[in-house]
Amino acid sequence: MKKKTNYTKSPNNISKAINSSLVMEDFLPPPDKLIVKEDNSKVTILLSKKSITFFKDQSKKSGVPYQSMIKRVLDLYADKFAHK
What we know:
The chain has helices at 12-20, 49-62, 66-82. By secondary structure, it is mainly α.
């Protein structure tokens, strides 16, 4: 067993923050549960340059592929209006 390290010269504000912190349980699912397999279909769709430019710009900012962003928007729209 490793010997516990006892720090004695930390700045006061860091020491207080560490002493008042709480241990949180791991709430994230394991990696194999993060990716949900979906039944997808490939389609060809004509979109405006304005829309594509918007999603590509957002993609660069967020690191999410623009096709995935468009798919998510369409899925949310379909979910909202499919049950009415």
